[in-house]
Amino acid sequence: MKKTTTAEQRMQGDVATGRDTRTAVLTRSIRSNVPLRKTFVQANKGSVSRHGPLKDFVTGRDLRGLRAYLIIVAACSNGDNGWSTTHDSAVWARLMDIHETALSQSARTGAWRALRRLEARNLIECSRSGTMITVTLLREDGTGKPYDRPVGDHEENRFLQIPTTFWTQGRAEKLNLPGLALFLVVAREKHWVALPADRAPEWYGWSPDTHARGLKQLVDLGLVQKRAFKKKAPFAPLGFTIAHEYRRALITVPRKPQPKKKSVASTTP
User: Using an 8 Å Cβ cutoff, are 186 and 193 in contact?
Assistant: First the structure.
């Protein structure tokens, strides 16, 4: 039986993983948190429907597409290249972890198809030249309008923030589709909030079961905190029922930007 030499082992190990590639993208964007308009998760009050573009990922069972979209927002929303980013199709495949389950050419094709699905939802524009693919952000509400960075100055510009450690420390990788969707729901709120499963079809567009499973996974993984409270119920035997509220756990709270260190000027004696 042929033994693998130390040199061969080193060559096999020196290959970037999906997490390595996502970390490199986030490091290059030079940020602690990634902004995402709240209208991606849920439309504003007064809209004909409260459902945001997130609904289509959940009902379409498109976990790969949702993960891809969130990392695209992280890669493009710093504005250094006009809300665009360009990578080889193999790099896009690695960003989405497609390379783990497909051979090289199939992974490249899978990445292109995933990006085209996002384009069909009016969330991005993408173009291809040879093996290079350029992706440009559009507004997160799915209207197809050009992207601009949300600044929170009015309702359409309110945003949630996802800390870059959500990707670099592998937390996103642990979540299934309900868990990732509900993470965005909880992240949309600043404080403790009740998220009753029976309101999920009206508020978000998915089933109560999906809603409950997503919240349970987040609590089980320690990404979200849960607390019980009494809710007045005139027809209940005790006059109340027990409901629950949720908020982000500390490890998923947006990080405060570190102040820039002032350089100490040298003095001449």
Answer: yes
Q: Are 140 and 118 in contact (CB under 8 A)?
A: no
What are the pLDDT digits (tens) for 205-215?
Answer: 999 999 999 99
Comparison of pLDDT for 252 and 268, the residue scoring more: 252
3-state secondary structure of 242: strand
Asked if residue 180 has pLDDT above 60, the reply is yes
| Count of structural domains within the chain | 2
Q: To 5 degrees, how large is the angle CA 58–CA 184–CA 110?
A: 50
Beta strands in 73-147 (DSSP E): 84-88, 124-129, 132-137
pLDDT score at 239: 86
Query: 99 is written with which tokens?
Result: 């390379």
What number is the average pLDDT over the span 237-265? 78
Same domain, 241 and 157: no
Range of the domain at 124: 17-168
Amino acid 257: pLDDT: 65
Establish if 39 belongs to a structural domain.
yes
Length of the chain: 269
Nearest CA-CA partner of 74 in 161, 5, 4:
161
Under 8 Å between Cβ of 133 and 126: yes
Q: Does residue 209 sit in the same domain as residue 86?
A: no
